[in-house]
Design a protein that fits this description.
Number of helices: 17
GO molecular function: DNA binding
Number of strands: 5
Structural class: mainly alpha
Strand content: 5-15%
Helix content: 40-55%
Distance between the termini: 67 Å
InterPro entries: DNA_brk_join_enz, Integrase-like_cat_sf, Integrase_catalytic, Integrase_recombinase_N, Tyrosine_recombinase_XerCD
Domain Tyr recombinase: 181-384
Pfam family, one: Phage_integrase
CATH class of the largest domain: Mainly Alpha
Keywords: Chromosome partition, DNA integration, DNA recombination, DNA-binding, Plasmid
């Protein structure tokens, strides 16, 4: 961060905050003031350029979050702004500060992230967890650091043998078991228990039922996609014939560009039957005719005009699990995504058909849910 006189610095922060206001649709605006303090003028200008270039909202949020963290870490670790391009020594320091051995730390307090750096990041709200970072988090931040460096027309040392070796050895020295985003999948039997906790009349019950059913039936949509869903993305489709021949309501959801789609590609998924009814019931009760589909509800039953926070989708899953008598620690919003594919496998729906709805691009990743379901119930597990 540039060192400026008090008044000049305050003016610069205010200017950056105003600029960030112009791109609130894709940035975590609840942290606008903190971002304005941490990011430099060039950082903010880069972000605005990326918005104008049409970068995906989720990708830009991740870049912004990582950039703010890197800026805060550089100030805490070196007492200087983040340099562009970063020298190899700083990249190695970043790895050493974030991937370390807790057992060695017990006997060597200097091992890993220094206490003063750790405290500075916690005081700023940039660090919450304890212990070394997950290797994937470190790799992602290094990758985004490299990307931001290239966008500035600069070359970095991100491909240096020393950095690759340090990262590989650090990961090997501190093995971390891969944890699932949701300990258990929300399959139809679990979903039925969650839905049973939703009444028929209160706005909160109607909203939560619609969220659960839409998120699951639309292929296990990510919580950011559910929270950010807007009325303009919904299109009423001709009814679909049910098993008994009766017409079932149908609509399409235009997801636009998603995490797995290519640039300019509009991903579309479909809802049929009960999920459509649940969604329509919520929209009618909340009197929503445009804008955000899912919104916060205050204690007096007033529906907000702003979109629901993605974290709230996760909270809803856990709250409904607790009311249903399940352990909320076992379930999260991602359980709806894994549950959709697991349920599809159990019902012998073809993998390609399920992927067409979930919008997974990797057969290997989507197929892992099928393999797990098949192995658990297959003949090979019942030889005795």
């Amino acid at each position: 961060m540039d060192i400026l006189a008090p008044n000049t610095a305050s003016d610069a922060i205010a200017r950056r905050a105003e600029t960030l206001d112009t791109i609130t649709a894709v940035l975590p605006i609840d942290r606008r003031d903190k971002l304005a303090e941490i990011l430099t003028d060039q950082d903010v200008e880069t972000l605005r350029h990326l918005v104008n270039e049409g970068m995906g909202a989720n990708t830009l949020r991740a870049l912004t979050s990582d950039l703010a963290y890197l800026e805060a870490w550089a100030l805490a670790a070196t007492e200087n702004p983040l340099p562009w391009p970063a020298p190899e020594a700083l990249l190695l320091k970043f790895v050493a500060h974030h991937l370390w051995d807790p057992a060695r730390r017990e006997n060597d307090p200097e091992h890993g992230m220094p206490a003063n750096v750790d405290q500075a990041l916690r005081d700023g709200g940039f660090l919450r967890s304890t212990g070394p970072h997950a290797p994937d988090t470190v790799r992602r931040r290094l990758a985004n650091w490299s990307t931001l460096t290239k966008w500035r027309g600069l070359d970095g040392a991100f491909a240096s043998p020393a950095l690759r070796s340090a990262l590989r050895l650090a990961v090997r020295a501190v093995p971390r078991p891969r944890r699932r985003k949701s300990a258990k999948a929300v399959t139809c039997d679990v979903l039925a228990k969650l839905l049973a906790t939703c009444g028929e009349h209160s706005l909160r019950d109607l909203r939560d039922r619609a969220i659960l059913m839409v998120a699951f039936a639309s292929g296990g949509r990510r919580r950011s996609e559910v929270a950010g869903l807007r009325m303009e993305q919904l299109t009423v489709e001709p009814p679909v014939a049910g098993e008994d021949g009766s017409p079932l309501p149908s609509l399409s959801i235009h997801l636009g560009r998603t995490k797995n789609s290519g640039a300019g590609q509009d991903e579309v998924v479909y809802l049929t039957g009960r999920p459509v009814d649940a969604l329509n019931a919520w929209l009618a009760a909340a009197k929503i005719g445009g804008g955000s589909v899912f919104r916060a509800i205050d204690r007096w039953g007033h529906v907000s005009r702003r979109a629901l926070d993605p974290k709230a989708v996760n909270d809803i899953v856990k709250q409904r699990a607790a009311i249903a008598g399940l352990d909320p620690a076992d379930y999260s919003a991602h359980g709806l995504r894994s549950g959709f594919l697991t349920e599809a496998a159990i019902r012998n729906i073809s993998l390609l058909e399920a992927m067409d709805q979930s919008r997974h691009r990797s057969v290997q990743q989507a197929g892992s849910y099928y393999n797990h379901a098949t192995r658990r119930s297959g003949l090979a597990t019942r030889l005795l």
